[in-house]
# Entry
Amino acid sequence: MLKNHYRAIMFDLDGTLLPMDMEEFTSGYFKELYKKVNMTDIPVQSFVDAIWKGTYSMMKNDGTKKNRDAFWDTFGSVIDCDIDEIDKRCLDFYSNEFKDSKRFTKDNPLAVKAVEIAHKKADFVILATNPIFPMAGQITRLGWIDLKKEDFDLVTCYEEESYCKPNPKYFEAVLKKMGLAKEECLMIGNDEKEDMLCAKMAEIDAYLVEDTMIECKDHPWEGERGSFADMIKMLEGLK
# Structure
């Protein structure tokens, strides 16, 4: 049962505010990123494998380093390359060519409305998207649904965070940074494991958006849920 008021409302991005099929999105944009880094001596599959291994390192990060460092330390251990140069090209990609990867996602004309309502109902609105992208990548993806960094009081990114969902320490770090108590927050997401289970372990209330839901058979969500439109009605009902 949700409360009737929260100081902070947190939104997931991929699959929640920004509808997408994760497999279609990652396979599509990885190919575009490969073109940008121009590592012609490395097969595309080897490049993709290195990205996934780096991402896995971020997902398992124990807080001892920033996610950015966890990613590039692993990437560099898999592929022998000039990490600083590849990092530079990747950042340029996320700031520029990445905008064209919008075609691998879907539109959400209600995203802006949801965030606007959240601001009216809470003191803080947070983009609690998994911090596996640089800030440039977060900003570009927000632009696909007509949102921007300034629409949120915090946007988590791989340069600043040291944990990832579904580790509940991700939420604990966000709450500490914002000076919030767990009972003051509501998490809205589409992933039964990374959003719902993670929030539950952090003792944060959560709402599951079902439109592009990612199921977890081991941890099915038994709490509040509904379509994106239903979620907006829920937000409108808050005090």
Observations:
- The chain has two domains: 8-20+106-236, 23-103.
- DSSP finds nine helices and six strands in the chain.
- The first strand starts at residue 8 and ends at 11.
- The CA atoms of residues 207 and 224 lie 5 Å apart.
